[in-house]
Amino acid sequence: MYLRTPSRKELSRKEDANLEEWKKFAAKSREDLALVENLEKLMQVKHELDGVKQKTLTDIRKLKDSYEKKVWKKKLQLKDDEEMMKLYEERSRVIELIPKFWSNVFKAGFQSHLNDKDKEVIEYLKSLVVKGRPCTSECTIILEFDQNPYFKNSRLTKTFYYSHDGITDSSGTKIEWKAGEGITAGPEEKRKSFFTWFEESTKERQDVVANVITSNLWRYAPSYFQHMAEQQNGE
User: Fold this and answer.
1) Rounded to an integer, what distance in angstroms lies between the CA atom of residue 101 and that of residue 114?
2) Disulfide: which of 4, 176, 185, 194 matches 152 by Cβ 3.0-4.6 Å?
């Protein structure tokens, strides 16, 4: 069955769902009580993340002087990053308790970047972590995988280095494909493999894949998970 990727507007509406709606959704999906409780915790963390971001934006808007705004904007964003990092760590601990969370998130929000072979590999995705962000000097995307029949690596990473003009350099993991596997194994794919991205050097100032992961999948992960589950349950 084709799974339509939700728009940002749709995701925003889902982000506004309250805890009771999440509970009803889990009940409709016939998931057990543990999942309901974990979804509730996930939504609570989501509301805290939203609160931190909104407070920072409000504080920045209050600043009138352009120089003052430039100085304090950086200080406020650093404080924002510290608080959000703690909340993302808390979110990750909850996500660990939800089976197939990240593989479902990728299938819901990243399918246009995956070919058929990639989708098989993504089933083994255990976690996604984003350290830093594009507006800082360095940002690292980390994907951790369960043991799988495709490659030996348990972790794939890609790091981007930035100046005020955008990306200046990047580095990624060399994937150790198992015998008979790899991006060149089997019939030629119509769509380029996502996994070539880890070893490619980024020549542009912006990286489309990195932007989708950091700005969409990482930030809106709970909504993508909900969307995927709803699709699978025919809603």
Assistant:
1) 17
2) 176
Q: Which residue has the tokens 């015998």?
A: 179
The C-alpha angle 87, 198, 223, rounded to 5 degrees, equals 35
| Angle 104-109-83 from CA coordinates, rounded to 5° | 85
Q: What is the pTM of this model?
A: 0.74
67 has pLDDT over 60: no
Distance between CA atoms of 174 and 185, rounded to whole angstroms?
16
Distance between CA atoms of residues 218 and 97, nearest Å: 17
Per residue in 134-166, pLDDT (tens digit) is: 566 889 999 999 999 999 999 999 999 988 788
CB 1 within 8 A of CB 218: no
Closest residue by Cα to residue 123 from 99, 103, 108, 142:
103
